[in-house]
Amino acid sequence: MRGLKDKVAVIAGGGTGIGAATAVRLAEEGVAVTVGDINIEAAQAVAGKIAGAGGKATAVKFDASDDASVKALVQAAVEIYGGIDLMHANAADLSLCLTDTDAVDVSLDLFDRTIAVNLRGHLLCTRHAIPALLKRGGGAIVYTSSGAAYVGEPERVSYAVSKSGINALMRHVASRWGKEGIRSNAIAPGLVMTDNALANMPQEAQDHMIQIGRSPRLGRPADIASMVAMLMSDDGDWINGQVISIDGGITMRG
Ligand SMILES: NC(=O)c1ccc[n+]([C@@H]2O[C@H](COP(=O)([O-])OP(=O)(O)OC[C@H]3O[C@@H](n4cnc5c(N)ncnc54)[C@H](O)[C@@H]3O)[C@@H](O)[C@H]2O)c1
After folding, report:
1. Can you give the CATH number for the domain in which 19 is found?
2. N or C: which terminus of the chain carries fewer CB neighbours within 10 A?
């Protein structure tokens, strides 16, 4: 893709799954990546894989729910690579989804924690990245939302609210800083078979999801990574303020 070579990216939540695939893809495009994650061993493994393939990567431990920690993640990237051009706000604590029920039943602690990591964490990535992006004359932010923001599920209320909030945050950033050269977009993946999903989702459930979809297969992390890379590249230079669904045709919004 055009315009990615020698750029600098922060992947906030890049230790596993979609974030890890995005870090690898961006590095293949010549981007220097800072892989931030609460799971430092996973982030180090991703950075090691990239470095082993001849790319540039650094692993940094951070907690998306902690303001000082997110600030330190961005600062680390600036110190190591001289600035940042790209931010992928991707972290979410999916373990919370297991007990995320409905609006009457859900534990308020679980709701608050989901918002703190999945939504407030994205706000923190935004507020620490933007001053650094502006110093380079602009850049791109890609947020990881979800189809859950649209489909109206009867469970996972906290998760859906956090992802809808991300969509609003993304549009705010696109509107507020678009003229200053910052593009802001979100991706809304459908079911993506990360290593974790492959290990935990029974085959019958996977088969059911294929059956109700419009694609012969389920999603792969690389499907999402390629859209993040495009949105961050010069090929996406006039795309701003959008939520792009990558879900094999499940949602068909328009
Ligand atoms: N896999 C899917 O089917 C799917 C579908 C729609 C949206 N998403 C979204 O994609 C993103 C990535 O999910 P994934 O499926 O790759 O799962 P994942 O669990 O592999 O990735 C999430 C990453 O965030 C990290 N993380 C969790 N809490 C954190 C914290 N407090 N601070 C910093 N890092 C933290 C995890 O360690 C992990 O590396 C998430 O935002 C998720 O909501 C995933």
Report:
1. 3.40.50.720
2. C
